[in-house]
Every structure is written in structure tokens, then in C-alpha cells.
Design goal:
Number of domains: 1
CATH architecture: Up-down Bundle
Low-confidence stretches: none
CATH topology: Four Helix Bundle (Hemerythrin (Met), subunit A)
Helix content: 40-55%
Number of strands: 2
Distance between the termini: 30 Å
Length: 164
């Protein structure tokens, strides 16, 4: 008997789907960026989104062994600026998955919260995918409390469901 496997490309596809839906929603409702927010040390939704895309970019850079972008340099003044950073990260993730990398190789890095640490490329990759998903779920709750409702289903089930 074999166990089911979620591949890196499948996780990346779900990650991109969620991000694309949020980008469209926020482009239509840019005022959401100014909503107060206390998630991940943010003061506004724009700062939460900065955190989300900064983490994506910095993990992708670590995986690819590229110089890390300074967190404070990540723009969050508009939906376009926020998702331009996301697009850079996605490009690096795709290139890394296409490259001949050792995904079990341990990488040393410094986190903003916990200081020096190390983890395998594989662990870092999946953490990046699920980190964004977790914060987008928190954002979904926050915007509902302010009268907004996302117009898509974010559950992974809908990546492959057939409805009658």
C-alpha cells in the first residue's frame, strides 16, 4: 500500500491560486489595505501582506542561495507593489524546483524572530507555502469582521473537486 503524496508543484499551485485570488480581491477593494490588523506584528492589512510576501521572497532567496532582500525594503504601499514582491518569489520558487538542487541539504539562516537556525530546503519550501496560507486564512477572518466576503473557496479540496 502506498501513501498519498502532495508534491512541491501541487503545493505551489495551491499557493499561487490563493495568492491570485487575494490579489484580485484586494485590487477590487484596495481600501482593505488600511484596515487595522494585529497579526504578525502588523498594524494594517498592508503590513500583514508585506510580512506575507517578504517571507515568501526571503525563503525563496534562501533556497536558491541568493542574497536576502532586507525586510524593510519590501514595499507595501499598494496591491501592485505587494504582489510584485510575491511574483519575484514565485519566479525563484519555480526556478529552484526546476534546478538540480539537493532538497535535503540543510541551510543556515537567521530569522527575525528566533535568530540563527537551520533547516532543509524541503522544510523551508513547504514552510513558505503553508505560512502564506495560514496568514491568508487569518486575513479572511479579519475582512469578514469588517463586512467583506471573499468570493472564492480557499480549501485545497477545490483544487481537484468535481461537483454535479
Amino acid at each position: 500500500m502506498s501513501e498519498p503524496v502532495l508534491t512541491a508543484l501541487e503545493a505551489l499551485k495551491w499557493f499561487e491560486n490563493a495568492s491570485d485570488n487575494w490579489r484580485k480581491f484586494l485590487t477590487t477593494n484596495p481600501e482593505i489595505l488600511s484596515i487595522s490588523c494585529d497579526i504578525a506584528g502588523a498594524v494594517t492589512v498592508a503590513q500583514l501582506l508585506q510580512h506575507i510576501v517578504a517571507v515568501e521572497l526571503r525563503w525563496s532567496e534562501r533556497i536558491a542561495r541568493l542574497p536576502e532582500t532586507n525586510y524593510e525594503q519590501i514595499p507595501f504601499g499598494s496591491v501592485d507593489a505587494i504582489y510584485a514582491t510575491h511574483d519575484r518569489a514565485v519566479d525563484i520558487f519555480h526556478k529552484s524546483l526546476a534546478a538540480d538542487l539537493d532538497w535535503d541539504q540543510t541551510i543556515d539562516f537567521v530569522t527575525r524572530t528566533y535568530g540563527p537556525a537551520s533547516a532543509s530546503r524541503k522544510t523551508i519550501f513547504f514552510h513558505a507555502m503553508f505560512h502564506s496560507t495560514r496568514h491568508y486564512a487569518q486575513l479572511g477572518t479579519l475582512i469578514r469582521q469588517h463586512g467583506y466576503k471573499a468570493d472564492w473557496v480557499a480549501d485545497y479540496l477545490f483544487m481537484g473537486i468535481t461537483l454535479p
